[in-house]
């Protein structure tokens, strides 16, 4: 197809969200039975005896003489009373809407197209959470047999700036937020995977079919949660004969309690 005959093409990122195993769905409030500035005891047991014992071949935790055990609930509470009732971890993932990149990229001249989505992870897990992203295909962005390559950084870490040469046609992403991992932090000027700065629209990487951690925290954040914005960018150089049409990248964002 001659370059002068090419029409525009539109990139779209389709997102699906997954909550990790062990999640509790719904609006549940959790509290500690005792706490101070140094500790928090999530649950306790009133009994007449028991404790911990062990040998080279076993470990035993026991209790004697508990009263008022079992499960009960109402419209406003859920109670699990008794020794070692299951401690459920609450985690919620909200947001993650599909992204239609803008503007459409001109087939004759090429150009840059951008889009973003924001997700919020809320969990009461004492160990925190992790947020990952993975592409369904390699390369991620496809239209039938036509594809747009995944962005490839110059080195082992993300590129501070999104670089598109005249011969490039690629899709990249970068996360921003309070919990982004070290790989996507920067020194505020030209280098990623260093320091603690989260510069806007910096540290670009390519999607992978292997889940990549983009945000994490080792503490509970319930009830406020933590927000991460994922920016996507498609760049097409002026000398690339990219077939016209609508290209789609399907990715999965997963939140897991730690």
Quick description:
With 258 residues, this protein is mainly β.
How would you describe this structure in keywords?
two-stranded antiparallel ribbon; mainly beta; 258 residues; 0% helix
Overview of the molecule:
The structure is a single chain. 0% of the residues lie in helices and 44% in strands. It has 258 residues and is mainly β. The protein folds into two domains: 3-26 and 90-257, no CATH class; 44-86, no CATH class. Strands 1, 2, 9, 10, 11, 12, 13, 14, 15, 16, 17 and 18 form a twelve-stranded mixed β-sheet that branches. A two-stranded antiparallel sheet has the order 3-4. Strand 13 and strand 14 (146-150) form a beta hairpin.
The total beta strand count reads 18
- Fraction of helical residues: under 10%
N to C succession of SSEs? EEEEEEEEEEEEEEEEEE
Unreliable spans are 1-7, 15-31
CA gyration radius, whole angstroms: 24 Å
Q: What is the count of distinct domains? A: 2
Helix count from the secondary structure assignment: 0
Major sheet attributes? 12 strands, mixed
Distance between the termini: 52 Å
Structural class: mainly beta
* Backbone shape: elongated
Strand content: 35-45%
* Average residue-wise pLDDT: 82
